[in-house]
Design goal:
Blueprint: H1 2-64, H2 74-100, H3 105-135, H4 138-143, H5 150-164, E1 173-175, H6 176-186, H7 198-207, E2 213-217, E3 227-232, E4 259-261, H8 265-276, E5 284-286, E6 293-296
Helix pairs in contact: 1-2, 1-3
């Protein structure tokens, strides 16, 4: 009887093992799906933040371009207020349309999500391209040209201000294209990716403690119309003193002293006397701290 009942008793145990295996697989799939959803939401959040900052910067720059330097007081900034009012009106109109037609929310949400993902991907690519030269091998480091030091960069900014000034009218600032052109002419082949960019200019300004302004006006070749991102002349620090020359690569070589054992002194002395005779000009000097060692002087 026991032999006949053994398979029937083992059947529930096998089913329990199968259920446990399926439950473990389902748990792994659920964890993978949860991790994917978390990564997606994190990417959407970071992309939304980047997209919002970019959109705000562009709208702010568009409003600041309405400033007129030929006027003073409220009249000079009247265009800024008008453009700001237009933006507020456009936002209110879009909100009213979404409120009246709820179906518009879906295409807006999808479009914003795609734009946020694109902004995040482009930011990651730019970050990877910026860090790639720093993580490269010695061959890539040898091909990259060095950039200016903070002191040399401040000197360069002052030189560019003088270059783009018109006689007695100094330029109120420098835009990124002007700074990039100056860096490219004096430090060719430099930059984070084999060429100078606005991100490199911003990094150099941070290293040299030079304030960056998004409402900078500039004159001269390469200046953008209206206001743009750059550095203001009034915010530039004073010219630092001329950098002192570095140490000479050809340093003084120290006198080489040969150290020999005491057992070799007599034999080497006899050989030198046989070769040079009385014209021998060297001597063996015993080490004061270690009598067992002799120096050739």
């Amino acid at each position: 009887m026991s032999a006949d009942t053994t398979p029937e008793a083992d059947a529930p145990a096998g089913r329990a093992d199968d259920l446990k295996a399926k439950a473990a697989q389902a748990q792994e799939k659920a964890q993978a799906a949860s991790a994917w959803a978390i990564r997606l939401m994190s990417t959407l959040g970071e992309g939304t933040s980047l997209l919002g900052k970019r959109l705000a910067d562009r709208l702010k720059g568009w409003c600041l371009q309405a400033h007129r330097s030929d006027l003073k007081g409220l009249s000079a900034d009247l265009g800024i207020y008008v453009r700001g009012a237009l933006l507020l009106g456009a936002g209110a109109g879009l909100g009213w349309l979404v409120y009246r037609h709820n179906a518009l929310m879906w295409p807006l949400a999808v479009g914003w999500s795609l734009a946020a993902l694109r902004a995040k991907v482009s930011a990651d690519k730019a970050k990877t391209a910026t860090q790639a030269p720093a993580d490269g091998g010695p061959e890539g480091a040898a091909r990259r040209a060095p950039g200016p030091s903070p002191e040399a960069f401040v000197h360069l900014l002052h030189d560019l201000v003088q270059e783009h000034s018109e006689g007695a009218r100094p330029t109120p600032g420098l835009h990124w294209p002007q700074v990039v052109a100056g860096l490219s002419s004096r430090y060719p082949g430099g930059g984070s990716s084999g060429g100078w960019s606005a991100a490199d200019c911003r990094a150099l300004c941070e290293a040299a403690a030079v304030p960056v302004s998004k409402g900078t006006r500039a004159r001269g070749q390469g200046a953008r119309p209206g206001v743009s991102t750059g550095v203001r002349t009034q915010d530039l620090p004073a010219r630092p003193p001329a950098p002192s020359p570095g140490p000479s690569p050809e340093g003084a070589t120290a006198t080489d002293v040969a150290v020999v054992s005491a057992g070799q002194i007599e034999q080497q002395g006899q050989q030198q006397q046989q070769q040079h005779g009385d014209s021998n000009t060297f001597a063996f000097v015993q080490d004061e701290t270690n009598p067992a060692r002799w120096h050739v002087a």
